[in-house]
Structure prediction request, 121 residues.
Amino acid sequence: MKAMFLAVSAAAVLFAASASEAAAPRGAVKDFVDRAHLEAGHRLAAAGVDLKDQQVTVKATVSSDGLRSVQVVNSSASRDTERAVEQVLKRLAVKDVPAGLVGASVTIPLGDGAVVQARNP
Prediction:
């Protein structure tokens, strides 16, 4: 099941990247969402938010300096954990934002999954 989930995840990343390709090169989009995912994981760990055996999916708007308006959109975690995730990731600084991605929505699963999507508004 996990292998199938990861295969679907990879397909979602490719589809999302092709949808925003006109605004930002595919490699730049993938690199940015990978950096955002890593930075989110580091921030949550530093704040003591444990997502072991849980998955929280957040949606955010890309800004010129990273992500803003981060909201939990799907979760297997408690409401307290969801609130902690939103508070810790309220604004997430991420380096090298592709100019064509500013204003786009990004969906990032945290915890036991790694599906990432980006699309232009």
Notes: The helical segments are 2-19, 26-46, 79-88. The chain has one domain: 2-119. The domain at 2-119 is CATH 3.30.1150 (Fusion Protein Consisting Of Minor Coat Protein, Glycine Rich Linker, Tola, And A His Tag; Chain: A; Domain 2).
